[in-house]
Amino acid sequence: MRILKHIKFYLVFFAGLVTHLQSQVLITITSVPKETPADARIFMPNSLNNWIPDDPDFELKKDSAGNYILQIPENKGTLEYKFTQGNWETAEGDHNGNNSDNRKLTFSKNAQNVENKILSWERTAAKKNTATDNVKVLSENFSIPQLKTSRRIWIYLPPDYATSTKKYPVIYMQDAQNLFNDATSFSGEWKVDKTLNQFFTEGNRAAIVVGIENGGAERLNEYSAWNNAKYAGGKGDAYTEFLAKTLKPYIDKNYRTLPQAKNTALIGSSMGGLISFYAGLKYPEKFGKLGIFSPSFWFAFKDLNLFVSKSAKNLKNTQFYFLAGVKESEEMVSDIEKVIPVLIKKGVPPEHIKTKFDEDGTHSESYWSREFGAAYLWLFKN
């Protein structure tokens, strides 16, 4: 009987071991550009790690055959990813050294060996400028006194801005590198300018868009008001104060805007979605429309939920547009669904909340670009 018990134990153990092995995905790079340094470190920023270009948990290691390998756990849905040498200036490119589309991996619940070939590094060729003529860099070094730093700020003006005397609503958007121009994007652009220009030709309401570039290595710190044990954070209060008390007053003073909260929006994705949501809750008298795309609520969900329930107020006029892919992560949709009843309890009318959860939605610029127009039309439908 004791022998049978031991046999049963080992059968269960090895069955579990086999299941564990089957749940792993092996990422392999079999070829890199000839100019790649022999000691190059290659990373895999992706839709699971907020596209961090030098995340040590997603660094590939060189094996005896000269290939770069990384083993990641099985997950659900589709993973989008790229390779870098540790920053977005050294991201992989296409055959011509230009920005390449995100790679995609569909998890299958079985062991997979996914082979990749890196065709070029983007720094070997200039990326194409795709911004429209009505997009300009407002400032290369706009002062952020709250953080004792500066940042590049972009501005999109409606096609008729120079030929009219109209005043316009304003949208403040995070991660400006990815909004208008393929030459500055690290994983594709949102095409905000192209979408709004098309809407303008169709007779839809025009808006000014102000894009704030993220701080690179400081992005996670600035885009969360709370600390995460692994990824830091905690500078979000200073950043949102900059949006509300420095940047918005400057834009309202120097451009023909409709400055009321009902005419002012914040839109962001991932960590940008988290900080846009927080800024809208903290300053509802400044920002009355919020576009929250694939928000990284997981980064500090307990603190965020406590803030919504205990500190948020005067939200009865704020509009919320939540967007997410059903298979982006285990908690993406559920975290949004947990926050909504709290918002309603705080006085937000249910008709002021719109959710769109897509089966094919991914944590990527291509998804957010596709959905930006619908969010804009809903937020500014009145």
Automatic annotation (TrEMBL):
InterPro entries in the cross-refs: AB_hydrolase_fold, Esterase-like, Ig-like_fold, Mycobacterial_A85_antigen
Name the record gives this protein: Carbohydrate acetyl esterase/feruloyl esterase
Gene source species? Chryseobacterium salivictor
**Lineage start:** Bacteria, Pseudomonadati, Bacteroidota, Flavobacteriia, Flavobacteriales
